[in-house]
Amino acid sequence: FTGAPVPEGADCVEMQENAEVLDDQRVRFTESLKPEQNIRPQGQETRIGDTVLAAGTRLGPIELGLAASLGLAEVDVVRRVRVAVLSTGDELIEPGQPLGPGQIYNSNRVLLCSWLKRLQCEVVDAGILPDDLAQTRAALASLHEVDLILSTGGVSVGEADFLGHALREEGELLLWKLAIKPGKPLTFGHFRGVPVIGLPGNPASTLVTFALLARAYLLR
Fold this sequence. Notes:
This protein has helices at residues 61-69, 107-118, 133-142, 163-170, 203-219, and strands spanning 19-21, 27-29, 82-88, 92-93, 104-105, 122-129, 148-152, 171-176, 187-191, 194-199. The protein is α/β, with parallel strands linked by helices. It folds into two domains: 10-39, no CATH class; 82-219, Molybdenum Cofactor Biosythetic Enzyme, Chain A. A six-stranded mixed sheet has the order 6-3-7-10-9-8, with helices on both faces. Strands 1-2 form a two-stranded antiparallel ribbon. Helix 2 packs parallel to helix 5 (203-219) and helix 3 (133-142) packs across helix 4. The protein is elongated. The two termini are 46 Å apart. The mean pLDDT is 90.
Protein backbone atom coordinates (compact mmCIF):
# COMPACT_ATOMS: atom_id res chain seq x y z
CA PHE A 1 0.00 0.00 0.00
CA THR A 2 1.09 3.58 -0.64
CA GLY A 3 3.35 4.85 2.15
CA ALA A 4 4.05 1.42 3.65
CA PRO A 5 7.61 0.27 4.38
CA VAL A 6 9.19 -2.02 1.79
CA PRO A 7 9.45 -5.65 2.98
CA GLU A 8 12.95 -6.93 3.60
CA GLY A 9 14.50 -8.37 0.45
CA ALA A 10 12.27 -6.45 -1.96
CA ASP A 11 13.85 -3.93 -4.34
CA CYS A 12 10.80 -2.64 -6.22
CA VAL A 13 7.05 -2.16 -5.83
CA GLU A 14 4.35 -2.71 -8.40
CA MET A 15 1.15 -0.68 -8.25
CA GLN A 16 -1.93 -2.68 -7.40
CA GLU A 17 -3.66 -1.35 -10.51
CA ASN A 18 -1.06 -3.14 -12.66
CA ALA A 19 -1.32 -6.50 -10.90
CA GLU A 20 -3.72 -9.36 -11.55
CA VAL A 21 -4.19 -12.04 -8.90
CA LEU A 22 -4.38 -15.42 -10.63
CA ASP A 23 -4.69 -17.59 -7.52
CA ASP A 24 -3.39 -17.87 -3.96
CA GLN A 25 0.17 -18.40 -5.19
CA ARG A 26 0.46 -16.43 -8.41
CA VAL A 27 0.24 -12.80 -9.48
CA ARG A 28 0.67 -11.49 -12.99
CA PHE A 29 2.02 -8.01 -13.73
CA THR A 30 1.08 -6.09 -16.84
CA GLU A 31 4.47 -4.37 -17.11
CA SER A 32 8.10 -5.20 -16.47
CA LEU A 33 9.62 -3.99 -13.20
CA LYS A 34 12.89 -2.18 -12.55
CA PRO A 35 14.96 -1.94 -9.36
CA GLU A 36 13.83 0.91 -7.07
CA GLN A 37 10.61 1.31 -9.05
CA ASN A 38 7.90 3.05 -6.96
CA ILE A 39 10.22 3.24 -3.95
CA ARG A 40 11.20 6.48 -2.28
CA PRO A 41 14.38 6.09 -0.25
CA GLN A 42 14.78 7.86 3.08
CA GLY A 43 16.13 11.37 2.63
CA GLN A 44 14.96 11.69 -0.97
CA GLU A 45 13.13 14.95 -0.28
CA THR A 46 14.97 16.30 2.76
CA ARG A 47 18.30 15.39 4.29
CA ILE A 48 19.79 16.26 7.65
CA GLY A 49 21.20 19.76 7.44
CA ASP A 50 18.97 20.92 4.58
CA THR A 51 17.30 24.33 4.89
CA VAL A 52 13.58 23.71 4.57
CA LEU A 53 12.13 27.07 5.62
CA ALA A 54 14.60 29.94 5.48
CA ALA A 55 14.44 32.74 8.03
CA GLY A 56 12.00 35.39 6.90
CA THR A 57 9.74 32.99 5.01
CA ARG A 58 6.07 33.97 5.15
CA LEU A 59 4.16 31.02 6.57
CA GLY A 60 1.14 30.04 4.52
CA PRO A 61 -0.76 26.75 4.23
CA ILE A 62 1.97 25.10 2.13
CA GLU A 63 4.79 26.13 4.47
CA LEU A 64 2.87 25.02 7.56
CA GLY A 65 2.08 21.68 5.94
CA LEU A 66 5.76 21.21 5.11
CA ALA A 67 6.74 21.91 8.71
CA ALA A 68 4.15 19.42 9.95
CA SER A 69 5.44 16.76 7.52
CA LEU A 70 8.81 17.04 9.26
CA GLY A 71 7.24 16.51 12.66
CA LEU A 72 7.50 20.13 13.75
CA ALA A 73 4.68 21.13 16.08
CA GLU A 74 6.13 24.61 16.65
CA VAL A 75 8.40 27.02 14.78
CA ASP A 76 9.98 30.27 15.87
CA VAL A 77 8.25 33.24 14.28
CA VAL A 78 8.48 37.01 14.30
CA ARG A 79 5.42 38.69 15.76
CA ARG A 80 3.07 40.54 13.46
CA VAL A 81 3.84 44.15 12.69
CA ARG A 82 1.56 46.51 14.65
CA VAL A 83 0.31 49.35 12.46
CA ALA A 84 -1.86 52.22 13.68
CA VAL A 85 -4.24 53.71 11.11
CA LEU A 86 -5.04 57.35 11.77
CA SER A 87 -7.43 59.40 9.65
CA THR A 88 -7.30 63.20 9.83
CA GLY A 89 -9.84 65.79 8.77
CA ASP A 90 -12.80 67.67 10.24
CA GLU A 91 -14.81 66.67 7.19
CA LEU A 92 -14.56 62.91 7.76
CA ILE A 93 -17.33 60.68 9.11
CA GLU A 94 -17.54 56.91 9.21
CA PRO A 95 -19.66 54.98 6.67
CA GLY A 96 -23.16 54.25 7.94
CA GLN A 97 -23.72 57.71 9.40
CA PRO A 98 -25.87 60.41 7.76
CA LEU A 99 -23.77 62.57 5.46
CA GLY A 100 -23.98 66.26 6.31
CA PRO A 101 -23.01 69.31 4.26
CA GLY A 102 -19.28 69.43 3.56
CA GLN A 103 -18.68 65.93 4.91
CA ILE A 104 -17.18 62.88 3.20
CA TYR A 105 -17.06 59.24 4.20
CA ASN A 106 -13.80 57.90 5.57
CA SER A 107 -13.20 55.31 2.87
CA ASN A 108 -9.42 55.38 3.36
CA ARG A 109 -9.71 53.74 6.77
CA VAL A 110 -11.59 50.76 5.33
CA LEU A 111 -9.13 50.46 2.45
CA LEU A 112 -6.02 50.56 4.62
CA CYS A 113 -7.28 48.36 7.46
CA SER A 114 -8.42 45.70 5.00
CA TRP A 115 -5.14 45.79 3.09
CA LEU A 116 -3.04 45.67 6.25
CA LYS A 117 -4.93 42.64 7.51
CA ARG A 118 -4.29 40.92 4.18
CA LEU A 119 -0.59 41.60 4.78
CA GLN A 120 -0.95 39.86 8.17
CA CYS A 121 -0.41 43.07 10.14
CA GLU A 122 -1.95 43.71 13.54
CA VAL A 123 -4.10 46.78 12.96
CA VAL A 124 -4.70 49.44 15.60
CA ASP A 125 -7.62 51.62 14.52
CA ALA A 126 -6.81 55.09 15.86
CA GLY A 127 -10.02 56.62 14.54
CA ILE A 128 -10.60 60.06 13.06
CA LEU A 129 -8.52 63.01 14.22
CA PRO A 130 -9.75 66.62 13.86
CA ASP A 131 -7.61 69.26 12.20
CA ASP A 132 -5.83 70.44 15.32
CA LEU A 133 -2.09 70.52 16.03
CA ALA A 134 -2.35 69.78 19.76
CA GLN A 135 -4.65 66.82 19.17
CA THR A 136 -2.38 65.60 16.38
CA ARG A 137 0.60 65.59 18.75
CA ALA A 138 -1.43 63.87 21.48
CA ALA A 139 -2.70 61.19 19.12
CA LEU A 140 0.79 60.44 17.81
CA ALA A 141 2.16 60.29 21.36
CA SER A 142 -0.52 57.79 22.40
CA LEU A 143 0.60 55.36 19.69
CA HIS A 144 4.11 54.81 21.07
CA GLU A 145 3.73 51.01 21.25
CA VAL A 146 3.12 50.40 17.53
CA ASP A 147 5.73 49.67 14.87
CA LEU A 148 4.33 52.12 12.34
CA ILE A 149 1.81 54.96 12.28
CA LEU A 150 -0.02 55.19 8.97
CA SER A 151 -2.06 58.37 8.61
CA THR A 152 -4.17 59.81 5.81
CA GLY A 153 -4.65 63.51 5.22
CA GLY A 154 -2.98 66.47 6.88
CA VAL A 155 0.18 66.29 4.74
CA SER A 156 -0.28 68.99 2.11
CA VAL A 157 0.26 72.76 2.33
CA GLY A 158 -3.12 73.76 3.76
CA GLU A 159 -3.58 75.59 7.04
CA ALA A 160 -5.16 72.46 8.53
CA ASP A 161 -2.34 70.08 7.54
CA PHE A 162 -0.59 69.49 10.86
CA LEU A 163 1.22 66.15 10.54
CA GLY A 164 4.43 67.68 9.21
CA HIS A 165 4.39 70.32 11.96
CA ALA A 166 4.07 67.63 14.64
CA LEU A 167 6.96 65.65 13.18
CA ARG A 168 9.20 68.72 13.04
CA GLU A 169 8.41 69.69 16.63
CA GLU A 170 8.73 66.30 18.36
CA GLY A 171 10.55 64.05 15.92
CA GLU A 172 12.05 64.34 12.48
CA LEU A 173 10.60 64.96 9.05
CA LEU A 174 12.67 62.97 6.57
CA LEU A 175 10.56 63.21 3.43
CA TRP A 176 7.85 65.50 2.15
CA LYS A 177 6.53 65.41 -1.40
CA LEU A 178 7.30 63.00 -4.22
CA ALA A 179 7.43 63.61 -7.95
CA ILE A 180 4.39 61.43 -8.64
CA LYS A 181 0.76 62.12 -9.36
CA PRO A 182 -1.48 61.17 -7.71
CA GLY A 183 0.36 60.99 -4.40
CA LYS A 184 2.70 64.00 -4.39
CA PRO A 185 2.28 65.21 -0.76
CA LEU A 186 3.52 62.03 0.94
CA THR A 187 5.27 62.44 4.29
CA PHE A 188 7.72 60.19 6.12
CA GLY A 189 9.46 60.71 9.42
CA HIS A 190 9.57 59.68 13.07
CA PHE A 191 7.58 60.84 16.08
CA ARG A 192 9.42 60.07 19.31
CA GLY A 193 11.14 57.16 17.58
CA VAL A 194 8.05 55.64 15.93
CA PRO A 195 8.07 55.63 12.09
CA VAL A 196 5.24 57.66 10.56
CA ILE A 197 4.03 57.49 6.97
CA GLY A 198 1.59 60.24 6.06
CA LEU A 199 -0.43 59.37 2.99
CA PRO A 200 -2.40 62.00 1.07
CA GLY A 201 -6.08 62.18 1.97
CA ASN A 202 -7.37 61.89 -1.58
CA PRO A 203 -8.56 58.26 -1.90
CA ALA A 204 -6.82 57.75 -5.25
CA SER A 205 -3.59 59.15 -3.82
CA THR A 206 -3.95 56.98 -0.73
CA LEU A 207 -4.32 53.88 -2.88
CA VAL A 208 -1.33 54.68 -5.09
CA THR A 209 1.09 55.67 -2.33
CA PHE A 210 0.19 52.72 -0.14
CA ALA A 211 0.50 50.23 -3.01
CA LEU A 212 3.82 51.61 -4.25
CA LEU A 213 5.53 52.76 -1.06
CA ALA A 214 3.92 51.91 2.29
CA ARG A 215 3.33 48.28 1.33
CA ALA A 216 6.96 47.91 0.25
CA TYR A 217 8.09 49.45 3.54
CA LEU A 218 6.07 46.91 5.52
CA LEU A 219 7.35 43.94 3.51
CA ARG A 220 11.03 44.87 3.60
